[in-house]
Amino acid sequence: MEQPTIAEDVLTIDRPSAMAAAEMLPDGLVTANSDGRITFLNHRARQILGSWADGLVGRHLRDGIPLETRNGDSWWDVTDPWRGLQIRTGHREKLLQLPDGRELLVTARYLRKDQAGPLGAIFLGLRDAEARRRAEQDHAALISTIAHELRSPLTGVKGFSSTLLRRWAQFGEEQRLTMLRAIDGDADRLTRLITDLLDVSRIDAGKLRIHEVPLPIRETFTRHVDRLAANGHDASDFTVTVEPGAEEVYADADRLDQVLANLIENALRHGEGHVELSATPHDDDGTPGIVIGVRDDGPGIPEEKRRVVFGRFWHGQSGSGTGLGLYIVRGIVEAHGGWADIGDSPGGGAMVRVFLPSEPV
């Protein structure tokens, strides 16, 4: 006996079972027959469509779900599944909207009796566009934040370089050196901001690459303290402690420097001036490694806010910076097979800890 095809009517084959399965889908599902008359929509589709879902069954798709492009054109006129090419099987996910401006992510599937036969049924997959809209807002906020942070060093570079070009002979050697150092410092800041922006994109895409080698941790700590001392900080404001068994870590040298630079900068921004750097041996479920701790002497992070400090755009009480430092730290550390957390420093303030393996993972 010849079995009916799903294209003839998707719900004629064991209709109760098909409807029950459709109700379990996490996305909205709308089906229509070959004439475009709506035959079924599941509960999730009703939730997504809201008031548009009232009395839809039996209505034509054009009238019942009048989808539009961002230009306000009718999506049904653009696609025309009834009179268009008969080899089309549907459309990939598109961002469309209803006349009231509500945005939906829509996927279409055209079911045919054979490869180039007449249209038998239409499936519409519906998703709420809220998640994508939030992602777009995050990207817009990221661009806005970076643009704002770039403006200050660019202004410094432009101002000092223009002044030197126009009035070189009027300045003494020490004045020239001062302005050149300012330009150099602003250029370094620009480089860090651009690196942060690129790293955020790589972390989001899961494409952050690392090249692990054995690294001496004390020398790494000392190099950062020396750099900060050369930039005007008092070397006595930094304490370095490396416990036996924590002398070496297996990590990407540049990425480890980036992690430490972000953690130290964060500690200086939120503390009172003293920073402690420590390394202790640690076994994480059979994976040997070290825990690097960076402590400040500030007010600390309230426990209820610690779950968000490693997210994008987190700012402490100072409200300064891009808010990307700890997000990048966590991304780099997790790319090494480690983890990051935050807690109270024994002497007051906050302590950020990161675990890194001491051998290849």
Describe this structure in words.
Strands 2-1-5-4-3 form a five-stranded antiparallel sheet. By secondary structure, the protein is an alpha+beta fold. The protein contains nine helices and twelve strands. Strand 3 and strand 4 form a beta hairpin. The N terminus is likely disordered. The protein starts with 14 loop residues before the first helix and ends with a strand. The radius of gyration is 30 Å and the shape is elongated. Helix 6 packs across helix 9 and helix 8 runs antiparallel to helix 9. 39% of the residues lie in helices and 24% in strands.
Summarize it:
By secondary structure, the chain is of the alpha+beta class. It has helices at 15-23, 43-49, 61-64, 75-79, 130-167, 173-205, 217-230, 253-270, 325-335; strands spanning 28-33, 38-41, 90-97, 103-112, 119-128, 212-216, 238-242, 248-252, 275-284, 287-296, 339-344, 350-357.
Note the topology.
Blueprint: H1 15-23, E1 28-33, E2 38-41, H2 43-49, H3 61-64, H4 75-79, E3 90-97, E4 103-112, E5 119-128, H5 130-167, H6 173-205, E6 212-216, H7 217-230, E7 238-242, E8 248-252, H8 253-270, E9 275-284, E10 287-296, H9 325-335, E11 339-344, E12 350-357
Parallel strand pairs: 7-9
Antiparallel strand pairs: 1-2, 1-5, 3-4, 4-5, 6-8, 9-10, 10-12, 11-12
Helix pairs in contact: 5-6, 6-9, 8-9
